[in-house]
Specification:
heterodimer, A: 165 residues, alpha+beta, 5 helices, 5 strands, B: 423 residues, mainly alpha, two-stranded antiparallel sheet, 15 helices, 4 strands
Amino acid sequence: MKGKVHGYGGKMTLGERLYLGEIFRGLGITIRHVIRNLLHTGDMPTVQYPEERRAYSPRFRGRHRLMKREDGTPRCVACMMCSTACPADCIHIVAEEHPDPAIEKAPASFEIDLLRCVYCGLCEEACPCDAIRMDTGIYDMAADSRAKFYVDKEFLLNNTTDGTR
Amino acid sequence: MDLVLTTFLKMAFMLAVILGLVPVLIWAERKGSAYIQDRTGPNRAGIAGIRLAGLIHPIADVLKLLFKEDVRPAGVHRVMYALAPFLVFFIALLTYAVIPFGDYLEVGGRRIPLVVADLDVGILYVLAIASLGTYGIVMGGWASNNKYTFLGAVRSTSQMISYEISMGLALMGLLLVSESLRLTDVVAGQGQLLWGFLPRWGVVIQPLGAILFMTAAFAETNRNPFDLPEGESELVSGYHLEYSSMKFALFFMAEYTNLVVASALIATLYFGGWNIPWLPRAVIEARAGGLLSLLLAAHVAICALAAALFLRRASRERGRFGDGRDREPGLMAGVSILLGLAGLAALALRPWEIGPAGASLLATVLQVGAFVGKVVFFCWFFIWVRWTLPRFRYDQLMHLGWKVMLPLALANLVVTAVVVALV
């Protein structure tokens, strides 16, 4: 850092108290920024958002997805662990019997209110069979009504990790 | 009849310049502040991918404001609330009447002075209208029935009173030197040279007065660092907080109109108005042919540079967006090349002969161009200062106005008076 730094109670010199010279020094600094940015438009740190995106960590918690078994049915056994752990109370599950007697239960409906969700990830940690994950990396969600943020089982099953949905 | 027609044409020209500058200034404010802060600024709105570095944004803004709901809060004074934005905008436009934007225009042997109203008391008129501007702000702030708008209005008034005095006293120094209240005389006096080499501009013979006047002009237009009437951090947005839709837009436009007025005043009073330094009218008319060639050559050079820059961008950013925006650099390069070729053709073929009438016209155009150029520079200066300096605290504002600027303006007046009396 260049220049003198004044702490609290520091005396300003006469030149600084005259104010005018310092104004022109400040104007010099700002015009230098303008000229540099005009000549090197590409060097600006701005990310042109919809076209360019910042890379997020793989641990970033985005929109939820429901995992599938090999036969395509949801891995979820409707144990209610996630909806119990959820601090925002945004997961609503209705359980039903699974046709396979080896599996106890399955979700008849699995709904998440994405507007209530706080993206804390406690549902992922609570899940005993790794059925719910938040690794889609989707963070830009928009809709024209609240109802569209109340997503159902089909929606969650079709979310994928590559961010296409 | 002729007088009425020419006056209307001059008014139309002034209005076109001012109202045309407003959207450009809004763009310059956004883009300039962005570049000062290392951001890219507006670059999204476009027509079929043509974005002109964000110049389409003002159009989008105006469309948005036109179609917005005009909300009127409960408990407002209906008449004053509706009247305030119109008053502010109207008064902002009034000052232009006395500002000379050129020497004269020769049409058919008649000389038309390029000023709408050449008042004997031009400077007094300017001061009177400048202080009227605060009435609209006070009306808007009071009629809105809101504490914040009211505080903004009160601040605006006290600021206006404090800085009006220094402004008037600074102007009186200039008055002693120019020996006339008529703005055309003030400008004409600045066309001479001081000691044979310095342009006799107001800023050269009244440097302190120029600084005081510019500072006061910043305060009168409510621009940073004196924008306490709108102080976002404490008054939300000040006097126009309760306004929406086109009423808000009028306040917004009035702010930029005031900015152009202040710039025009600074240019007229202290920076030679339409005078081009070291290039008086007689010289322009004598060497009109050579000057025109020089101008055309400069035009061709600028077009070539622009074309080269656009072509470089076009090759660098090929297919960057994958839509109409990719075509923009190439299109701009094409336009620059066409303009440059047109200039080159005019330069090489010389399809016309410059007679005395043409020389006179060229001189007028150059002088009006010099005036507009100075105004644009000072508009940018306003924006530049806004994004450099922090806002004053209220006690600092009053301290500067009463304890610093007032004594300095008085001292300037006394010294000028003594010097004028002795010389």
